[in-house]
Every structure is written in C-alpha cells, then in structure tokens.
C-alpha cells in the first residue's frame, strides 16, 4: 500500500458512501423509458390529495446545463448580473420569455370529460366533480411553480387523467427550459418526470397518464411532444372535446 493510499484511501470510499446515501435518501422515483409505470394502489397512495407540480426555469442557451467557461470572470466583473431574470434565446436574434402551463384532461367513469387549465381560468374543483383542481397560473417560472390537486378519495370515479404541459407563449422553446413534473402521493416516494428530450418546435407535451385499470391506479410516463396545442393532444388520446382559441389577460 502506498503512502497516498494510507493517507487518503478511506477518504475516497467515505465520499462515495456519502454520495450514495444522498442519492437514495432523496426518496424520488424517476419514471423513465425503461421504468415508465408506477402503481399508486400497490404503494398504498390512494387516499388524500395527490399533488402534481410543474416547476421550471429558463436558460439562455443549449449549453446551460453546466458552468460556462469564463463564468467566474463574468461574475466578478458584473456581480449584479446574477440577480437579473433569465430569458430564453429563441431561434434567431429575438429574446423571449416562455410561459409553461400545467393542465389535466379528465374522463370520469360516468362519461363526463373536460379539462383543468390556466387558460380560460378553468381551475376545477377538489371536492366535487371532476375532483381535480389547479392552484393557479405561474407565468414566470417561480420556485413553487403550478400545482394540480387530485382527490384520490374519489379514485373510483376516475377513468383516466392526462397530465400535460403546453407553452402559452407563441414561441416553442421546450428545449430551452429546465422543466420537471413531480407527483407527490399521499404515501410513498414522489415520482419525477423531467422534460429533457429535444423537441425544439413542439408546443405541447403529454407527460403522464393516470388510469384506473380494474381498480388499480396506474401512473404511466408518456412524454409525447406535439406541435399543436390541446386539440392535437385530444386527437392523439381520443378524448373527443371541442376546442376554441383562448387568451390570457395581460399581467
């Protein structure tokens, strides 16, 4: 054994053990292509409110995932720049903000269908049909994001729920945002789906499908990007709703 191994060998092992513990201690289950489904019923997470959260922040380039070269120098030269809100670089010279919205199409066992979404201020209801309610509209990518609450005490009345995200802003820029949809069941680990796939022209993304399959509430990762809005997702999943153009009030 070398002197280096005697002095520092245990440090490396301890660091690795700490890293492993931190990863497992997070308690999150990431839904991926290889592991796309999760049973809320088998987890015992079929009572209370299921929270579905969309959190996102904008980035300035496709290479913003790691520290940029020269970032330390820029930080020293312009110390107040880090407090300036980031904007997304569109294709071309224009700089745009991106407004991501969290929404849910629902179909109940009695055949009733609809949507809960910020557009049109269709916020739903947690204690009466459709037993799905949106917290509100986050237009700026704040830390709390947007949250949909699903009343799992009425799970027997659900047939299927499609959780999706769309870009209200006219510029498609999914590939220039850091977006995460997280489910917080009443029991068990949280479930995460990162919207990381490159789809530069897409305007909407079907993220998760929650289905009542013979009493078993199954969550399935979809992550299907489309180039249109709600009507195109509707056609993709055969929901059969009627759609019209909608607008948000100016802030």
TrEMBL record:
InterPro entries: TerD. It comes from the Bacteria. This is Tellurium resistance. It comes from Streptomyces mashuensis.
